[in-house]
Amino acid sequence: MADKQQQTPERQFSVQRVYIKDVSFESPNAPELFRGEWTPKHTLNLNTQINDLDQDHYEVVLEVTVTVKVGDKTAFIVEVQQAGIFSIAGFPEQELGPMLGAYCPSLLFPYAREVVSDLVSKGSFPHLVLQHVNFDLLFAQHQQQRAQQEAQQGGTAPTEAVQH
């Protein structure tokens, strides 16, 4: 029994640091845009990058880009790279992917949402709060797309960042 316990490493997960890696706010059509009717349409793009730092330490970067247009004019573009360093040990390989591709981004998203909201307010635009994102579902969809690409390409797909 003692041998079996020694073979199974203890699972450990901790957030070492959460930080902004890059941030940008652009309002290319201000101040003219403030004078017209406010009928915005927005798009949200998400991307996740995973960087292996060393044994059991990973950097996960959640890239959030929000573009808001009024008609054909861009009101603003907000780009945030919210990053975190995570210590993850003792998890089997099949659980590591979902942790890095879904769980860690879901921990980073509230920080990115706050940065987006603050920047939009400071740009003198109406309050913007991004809605919850189901990173588990996005990760599963990405894995399914990747498996389909591998099947079409004969079993090998290029290494890429998880994109949502």
UniProtKB/TrEMBL annotation:
<keyword id="KW-0143">Chaperone</keyword>
<comment type="function">
    <text>One of the proteins required for the normal export of preproteins out of the cell cytoplasm. It is a molecular chaperone that binds to a subset of precursor proteins, maintaining them in a translocation-competent state. It also specifically binds to its receptor SecA.</text>
</comment>
<dbReference type="GO" id="GO:0006457">
    <property type="term" value="P:protein folding"/>
</dbReference>
<dbReference type="InterPro" id="IPR003708">
    <property type="entry name" value="SecB"/>
</dbReference>
<keyword id="KW-0653">Protein transport</keyword>
<keyword id="KW-0813">Transport</keyword>
<dbReference type="GO" id="GO:0005737">
    <property type="term" value="C:cytoplasm"/>
</dbReference>
<protein>
    <recommendedName>
        <fullName>Protein-export protein SecB</fullName>
    </recommendedName>
</protein>
<dbReference type="GO" id="GO:0015031">
    <property type="term" value="P:protein transport"/>
</dbReference>
<keyword id="KW-0811">Translocation</keyword>
<dbReference type="GO" id="GO:0051082">
    <property type="term" value="F:unfolded protein binding"/>
</dbReference>
<comment type="subunit">
    <text>Homotetramer, a dimer of dimers. One homotetramer interacts with 1 SecA dimer.</text>
</comment>
<dbReference type="Pfam" id="PF02556">
    <property type="entry name" value="SecB"/>
</dbReference>
<dbReference type="GO" id="GO:0051262">
    <property type="term" value="P:protein tetramerization"/>
</dbReference>
<dbReference type="InterPro" id="IPR035958">
    <property type="entry name" value="SecB-like_sf"/>
</dbReference>
<keyword id="KW-0963">Cytoplasm</keyword>
<comment type="similarity">
    <text>Belongs to the SecB family.</text>
</comment>
